Protein 1
Amino acid sequence: MMDIKAIELDLRKLSMTDRHTRIFSALKELKEQDAIIITNDHDPKPLQYLLKAEFKNTFSWEYKKQGPDEWVIEIKKLYPGDSLTAEQKGKREKLKQALKKLHEAPPQDLEKVKKKAVIYFKDTDPKELALVEQELIQEGTSRQEMKRLCDVHLEVMKEQLGVKAKRIKLPAWHPITILKDEHKIIKRNLKKLKRILEKLKTAGSFEKARHQINTLKELSHFFLETEKHHQREEEAIFPRLIAHGVTEPPEIFKEDHVEFKTKKKSLFEITMNAQTKDFKEFVEALSPLIEFLVKNLDDHIYKEDNILYPMSLETLEKDEWKDVRKKFDAIGYCCFVPVDFQPKADPPIYKLSVAGKKKKGR
Ligand SMILES: [Fe+2]
Ligand SMILES: [Fe+2]
C-alpha cells in the first residue's frame, strides 16, 4: 500500500523569512498524494499565487478552515494527470486503451492493431505518451514488459515523432543540443564498430587484423569515455524530471545505462587483452558485445532524441536549463568541448543613454 504522509506546519510560530524556506523545502520533499497542512493567522493567499507561478498545477490548495482567527490549508502534491481537464483526461484514457490493445495483441494481429492505433497516437506528444506509460506501470505493467512495448509504440509513432523532434531549434550552448550532437558521434562510432566486427570475422589471425584491432582499441576507449554522457543525463536531467512528476522514463533509461556500462567495460578489457586469447575465441567473445551495443545503444539514442529529450524540453522550466548546463560543465564532456554557456535567449537589457533615449545594451 502507498504510504501517504501529511506534514503539519504552523506558520504562526515561524518568522516571515523562515516561513518561505520551510514551506518550499517541505513541498520539494513531497511525493504524489503527500500533503502539507499549514495553519496561519490570516489567509495566505499570496502563497497560493506564488505556488501557481512557481509550480503550475503540481499542487492542490484546499481550505480546511477559513478564519476568522485561524486559517488551515491542505496543499497536496498531485499526480501529473490530476490537474487535467475532462477533455484531456478522456484523450489520455483513449491513448491508454490503445496502448493496452497493442500490448495484448497476439503476434498475428499486431500489424492490424498498429494501423488502428496510429489514429490515437496522431496528436500525442512525447510527454503525454511517457506519462500514460508511467500510469500503466503504476497499474501493474512490469518495467521489463513496458520496455519491450515501448519499441512497438515507437514504431507506430516513428514518423510523427521524427518530424516533431526535427522542429525543435535550440541554441548551441543548450544541454540538449550537446547531448544530441554527442549522439551523432556515438552513432558514427557504432557504425565503425560494426564494420570492424565484420572484418574481424573474416580476418583469421591477429596478424591480419592488426589495423582493425588498433582502431578497436581507440573505439573501446571512446565508448568508456561516453559514460560521462550518461552521467550527465542521470545527474543533471533525470532528478529534475522526477521532481516534475515524470518518474518512470528516467528509471527505464537508467536501467539501459547500467547494461551499456557493463558491456562497454567488457569490450574494453577484451580488446586490451586481445593477444592473450586465441584469435577465434577473441572474435567470439567480442561478437555478442558489439552486436548488443550496435543494436541497443542505437535504439536508446533514438528513444532519447525522439521522446526523452523533447519531453524534457516540455517538462523543465526554461530557467532550469541554465542550471542543467552548469551541472554538465561540472561533470565534464566526452566527445567534444561545447561552446560556452551563452544565454542569448534572455531578453536584451535596455539602458537609458545620457540623452535619455532607449539604447540596446548587452
Ligand atoms: Fe541515455
Ligand atoms: Fe543519450
Protein 2
Amino acid sequence: MSNNQQMGTIKFFKESIKNLKTVGTITRSSKYLCKGMIKPLDFENAKVIVELGAGDGVVTAHILKAMAPDAKLLAFELNKKFCDEMRQKFKDDRLIIVEDDASKIGTYLKENGLGKADAIVSAIPFTIIPEDITYSILTSCKEHLKEEGTYVQIHYSLLPKKYYKNTFGNIDIRFIPLNVPPAWVMVCKKTKA
Ligand SMILES: C[S@@+](CC[C@H](N)C(=O)[O-])C[C@H]1O[C@@H](n2cnc3c(N)ncnc32)[C@H](O)[C@@H]1O
C-alpha cells in the first residue's frame, strides 16, 4: 500500500467513526470489492453512470478508469469531508460530485441534462437506514434507470437482499471474500414492466 493510500485509509477510518450512523462501516472497499462492483457494468455502452454513497472515492476511481471518454458519472455523497476529498483528488470533467442525498437522483439527473442512468452503483448502508427510506430510494433508482439498466449494491450480509428482489424482481449475488469484512455484490436488472 502506498503512503497516499495509507493516509486515505486512516482519514476514512477517522471520518467514519465520527459518522458511523450514515457511513455504516469503518473501512473503505478493498480493490477486490471495487473491481467486483464494477464488473457487471457494460462500460462500452454506458453513457450515464450514477454512484450512491461514494465516500472518498475509492470505487469512483475504478469507475472513472473504466468508463468511456464521453460518459458521465454522477457521484452522490452526503459527507462534506468526503466530497472535499474527492474534489481534491479527481480533476475529471466526466465526474459530477453531488453533495446531497441519493434520494434526489431524479432531480440531479435532470439538472445535468443526463436523462436516465445506464447503471447505478451503490454502497449506501441500507441495513442501518429505516426500511421506508430504503424502499423510497430504491424505487427512485428503478424509476431513473434505463430499461435493461444495471443496479449494483454492496452489503456485508445477505439479509438485505429482499429489498432488491422486491424492487427489481431479480437478483444475482456474488461473494467477495477479500474485503474487511467480506462482502456481497448484489446485481439487479431493470426488466420490461
Ligand atoms: C459504506 S460507505 C462506502 C464508501 C465507498 N463507496 C466505499 O465503497 O468504500 C457509505 C457511504 O454512503 C454515504 N451515504 C449514506 N447515506 C447516503 C445517502 N442517503 N445519500 C448519499 N450518500 C449517503 C455515507 O456518507 C458513506 O460515505
